[in-house]
Design goal:
Layout (H helix, E strand, L loop, with lengths): L15 H17 L5 E3 L6 E4 L1 H7 L3 H4 L13 H8 L24
Antiparallel strand pairs: 1-2
Length: 110
């Protein structure tokens, strides 16, 4: 009488290059979108990344915007509404205390 053992066959495919290409496509779409796009850290309200459209529209480089509070780029008349939209359930947000004294540019068109 014969005993049969189990045989496992595994086929692996390296998707590293495909994943890299997908990320590159996403990055290009994000950076070249005609809409202003920014990724914001929900815990600090700081800009993690933004596209070139944001930088061009605001007169900064992307590097100058990354790390700033999202509230620094709003027109002063819109900051309260922006904070209200961004706040968590209890209405408090850890980073929007009094202005830090950083230079703020006015961003509204007449």
């Amino acid at each position: 009488h014969h005993e049969y053992g189990k045989v496992w066959v595994s086929i692996q495919t390296d998707i590293t290059e495909r994943k890299r290409m997908e990320e590159d496509i996403y990055r290009k779409l994000y950076d070249n979108a005609p809409d202003m796009l920014a990724s914001i850290d929900p815990n600090t309200a700081k800009i993690i990344q933004c596209n070139q459209t944001v930088a061009t529209a605001l007169g900064y480089t992307k590097e100058e915007l990354v790390g700033r509070s999202i509230f620094e780029i709003y027109h002063p008349g819109s900051i309260d509404r922006a904070k209200e939209a961004f706040c968590c359930e209890n209405g408090q947000f850890p980073s929007h205390r009094a202005s830090t004294g950083t230079q703020r540019r006015e961003y509204h068109r007449h």
